[in-house]
Amino acid sequence: MRLALALAFCVFAQVAAAAEVAGARFDPRAVVGGEEIVLNGAGLRRILLFKAYAIGLYLPRPTDTVEKVLADRGAKRLRIVLMRTLGADKLAHTIDTGLHRNLTDAEFEPLAQRVESLRAAIYAFGEAKAGAVIHLDWLPAAGVTRLTVDGESRSGDFPGADFYNALLKVWLGSNVNDPSLRDKLLGREDD
Questions:
Q1: What is the pLDDT of residues 112-142, one digit of tens each?
Q2: Residue 69 and residue 46: Cα distance in Å, rounded?
Q3: Which of helix, strand or coil describes residue 91?
Q4: Cβ contacts of residue 144 below 8 Å, gap of 6+?
Q5: What is the pTM of this model?
Q6: Residue boundaries of the structural domains of the chain
Q7: Between vectors from CA 167 to CA 169 and to CA 102, what angle results, nearest 5°?
Q8: For the domain bounded by 2-185, which CATH number is listed?
Q9: For the chain, which end, N or C, has fewer CB atoms within 10 Å of the first or last residue's CB respectively?
């Protein structure tokens, strides 16, 4: 029992502090849909040798497994801070590739129209400048995913927890490009 309490405290203490990844700051807490959530983990995504973006995962409570993240019904946030200017094609490609690598055809099919709408929203804002902050938020009371860029909503909302969980698998799935980044988002290792 004492060991379990000590481990729980260590996990909580790990997320209680702000994090900095490649100069991008991740506050220890955020509010999404009126619900306070905590930074679970953060890391850096490199593409080839370039720093592409820093990303942080916020959850209602610290969690170290993908299954627990996907099962949690509370508010969630993926906070992405761009390290370099990226065109819409690169952002859309990252999401498309991640979805197709981590979902079966049967899992992807019911999401296809919403994925296309998200792709259109990404193309609508075009190039995202270095330093831009992208939020992918899960708002459980409304049952929607919301995309914002630098605090401005850039699309309609995308319904369904299945859609948000699919997006999470881009970074947390079993076939991700960077398993080390997945571990960092799950609070398993520091950056």
A1: 999 999 999 988 878 889 999 999 999 999 9
A2: 24
A3: helix
A4: 138, 157, 158, 159, 160
A5: 0.88
A6: 2-185
A7: 35
A8: 3.50.70.10
A9: N
